[in-house]
């Protein structure tokens, strides 16, 4: 009986210790329907909005490592830092690419990337075409959802 009780206790302790611990970089979306997802919070002339990390990653995959001609991805140079990103994202001479991501998460296909109706872009390493550095947004957004003006980093 003692052995059986010890086994039950051991299993319970092991399951508690194996439970995932909260990641300090994660934050809950303000939209409670989304639950606990990693989001970038952006702010522009229309207001504040969230871009889920899954959407950003899908946009990086669609953009790929090859710079476009009259379509995204485009080379992106910046002076601001992506504090939560891979260290290479913040190197002075490291070329980055940008690709559009929609505010509702729907994918911008390459064929339509010449004129995307979204102010939001993902920034990622040209070096490998897969490393997400961050999400950025135009500071101005018109009534059709197109962005203009400077780009500002969204907060993770």
Automatic annotation (TrEMBL):
The keyword Ubl conjugation does not apply. GO terms for molecular function: hydrolase activity; RNA binding; RNA nuclease activity. This is AA1-like domain-containing protein. The keyword Iron does not apply. InterPro entries: Ribonuclease/ribotoxin. Keywords: Hydrolase, Nuclease, Signal. It comes from Hymenoscyphus albidus. Residues 1-18 form the signal peptide.
